[in-house]
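Morning F.,

Quick status update on the modeling queue. The single chain you submitted on Monday has been processed. Sequence for confirmation:
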Amino acid sequence: MAVKVNRRTPLYQGRVFLMVRENVTLDNGVNTDLDYIEHPGAAAIVPLIAPGEVLLIKQYRHALKQYIWEVPAGTLDPGEPVMGCARRELIEETGYAAEVWRKLGEITPVPGYSDERVHLFLAAELTAARQELDADEVLAVHRMPLAQALGMIPRGQIQDAKSICALFLAQQWLSHGEADASGGLTL
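Structure tokens below.
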């Protein structure tokens, strides 16, 4: 596959993303204009506050005009390593830091119009830290059993794609993870 980019036109530079239009020649010879969003990427975290218990946030999302349930997450700053973003966002949004981290995977939430990649993590051995919300973040942190959070998905209470993926992958990993010598899970 060798799609040829003939022309690239920036359309709009937002605070976080760039919208571009590219004129391309596809593998089948068709010449077309494609608009998409260039996004720096993000990290999303399932914080394991105790065995079988997670932290979720209920955050106002203006595009939806409502509060929604999510796992803590945030956008990578320019040049920021993915792990640095995950550590920063966990502290900023929940007021907890994690000692142990496990990468669960990576998703592309909307590949039809964005190149965004969200890196998913499980974080454990949490200790209290200082929550530092951004000025535009309005959210509340909630502690609940992982089973309860998973049960919110089929009921439509959690609809956020990154959160659904992260919670299912965390549950999958915790179900099949390796136990250390003390009987605890090794992340």
